[in-house]
Amino acid sequence: MAFDDKIMEKSIDPAVHQMLDRAEQLGLETVWDRYEKMLPECGFGELGVCCRNCNMGPCRISPFEDDGPQRGICGATADIIVARNLIRMIAGGAAAHSDHGRDLAHTLLLTAEGKSGGYEIKDEAKLAALAAEYGIATDQRSKEAIAEDLAKAVYAEFGKQEGPLQFTRRAPQKRVAQWQKMGIDPRGIDREIVEIMHRTHIGVDNDPVNLILQGLKASIADGWGGSMVATEISDVLFGTPMPVKSEANLGVLKEDHVNIIAHGHEPVLSEMILAAAGDPSLVANAKAAGAKGINVVGMCCTGNEIVMRHGIPLAGNFMQQELAIITGAVDAMIVDVQCIMPALGDLCECFHTRFISTSPKAKFPGAVHMQFSEESALAIAKEIVGSAVENYAHRVPEKVFIPADKTACMVGFSTEAILKALGGSLDPLLDAIKSGAVRGIAGVVGCNNPKIKHDEGHVGLVRHLIENNVLVVTTGCNAIACAKVGLMLPEAADDAGDGLKGVCKALGIPPVLHMGSCVDISRILSVCAAVANALGVDICDLPVAGAAPEWMSEKAVSIGAYVVSSGIFTVLGTVPPVLGSPVVTEVLTQAANDVVGAAFAVETDPVKAAGLMIDNIDKKRQALGI
Ligand code: SF4
Ligand code: MSK
């Protein structure tokens, strides 16, 4: 179906086109409308040169040397203000990921103590492997006793005063030595975040380079700390993902079922919602209400968590959350934390949809709050699902419009799953890289952003990479974008260059591997560390590159910082608010090479961005002599 240019230019996704048209017909506002109303966005903010860190201000630095203030009231220059603002974004992102990790540690501890309401330890092999990493005895001990020690050891990582963080030692020795040399080997996860807040207070750290180093340190505490904790403990509790088939896009909603969307980030909630949705009495209630059953689907990273462990379909990525409500077919939108638009409340009021918040950390206007607690998890989850079932009767059939679009996908490529697909050893992958069949590996991750045509940055970049024999590993909203266009099917190997196509066909895998949610970028770090260790080199020597084509969140800033700090060249598809400082811009795009062996580039054109990544991969191949 063709729509007017205004709609077509907003997204590459036909389901989005239909829903935007529907929104227009119904007179409803979406994120794209609000973005347009915001234009032109504040130039000072875009450059990163406004400061509100004390009440002498707010101050803003003029980008024109001969016109307007060049210093804040305290004397801070643009370089200082930009560096402070940037690392405060890192603090926000690292805090979000790491608090997610802490919640998982909490759930593990309660489960070990027999106090959690329905969780169990599903992956004992991973529990044992992590215990060994932490030096926790496993012989003749129950899984609960081991899990209790592990949970306490992991908990301690957050409040540690002196390092190292255990998982940072998965990195090659050379990498750790470089971090130590630069003073950026993190101590405690919380400590590094707090230190950012201290240093950026008025009158503390006023050296832009010193500020950025602390930003990198906190980001490492996120990637190799809080995020890695979140990933690993989730696997212990809910199972390590293995390849599974599913479907993606708004067409996974079902007109004749109670539709529940689980949206947000932490699997602690969504796992229980799934369990509750299988409860025979709730299913019977749904049927008594005239529905054929209960259909749980996921959105954003909660979607990634449950698709890769259970094959639960993905309704869409960040920019589709409002559109899902506009289908009129969602009986409950259940949310926990992160990436949930506060706009959902008003929108739900235009439909029958019940917007249910569950975390004491995240309340929303227009939401019904049904507080979740791990101690009575299943009981509360049943109440929440019951509320969705009850709401089905309020659905207004004339308001229902579900686009038919959905695409099959194969997801769930954890590090363990990749190893299994390779036959238990990294060697086939290393051989393919050495022979050039696989030119390199790219991690493509991150959000959506209305500054970029929805999904075009993601899909355009990934397609160009696989055509050029670069194997793509992905998480977050990029993963969902790739799933929706069929890039996560083994058949998509036909879209890859000949070398990659041959490898994928031999292994029966897609050329784009779904590795999970945003915190699961830690899985990508673990794979890179394993490959580097196998080759006896540092991560910065590997033919790998990273990209976040449509990033928007503070978490993405922290991710970018820890990926670069890990030695991986990274291309950003939306411009970070740093261009107001020549010093910060130079540090991030050049000098970082001397500090951590990698740097950032900014390129809004996805094909050119892929080109930069391929150039970097080729340079690394040359240096390795392959
Ligand atoms: Fe202005 Fe300095 Fe206060 Fe920032 S910290 S608001 S630059 S006076
Ligand atoms: S959900 S952080 S919009 S990737 Fe993890 Fe998507 Fe970005 Fe949220």
Automatic annotation (TrEMBL):
Gene Ontology BP term (one): response to hydrogen peroxide
Single GO MF annotation: peroxidase activity
Cofactor(s) in the UniProt record: [4Fe-4S] cluster
Binding positions for [Ni-4Fe-4S] cluster per the UniProt entry: 265, 301, 339, 447, 477, 518
Catalytic activity as recorded in UniProt: CO + 2 oxidized [2Fe-2S]-[ferredoxin] + H2O = 2 reduced [2Fe-2S]-[ferredoxin] + CO2 + 2 H(+)
Entry EC number(s): 1.2.7.4
This protein's UniProt keywords: 4Fe-4S, Iron, Iron-sulfur, Metal-binding, Nickel, Oxidoreductase
InterPro entries hit by this protein: CO_DH_a-bundle, CODH, HCP/CODH, Prismane-like_a/b-sand, Prismane-like_sf
Binding positions for [4Fe-4S] cluster 2 per the UniProt entry: 51, 54, 59, 74
Binding annotation for [4Fe-4S] cluster 1: 42, 50
Domain of life according to the entry: Bacteria
Database matches in Gene3D superfamilies: 1.20.1270.30, 3.40.50.2030
PANTHER family, per the entry: CARBON MONOXIDE DEHYDROGENASE, HYDROXYLAMINE REDUCTASE
Name of the molecule in the record: Carbon monoxide dehydrogenase
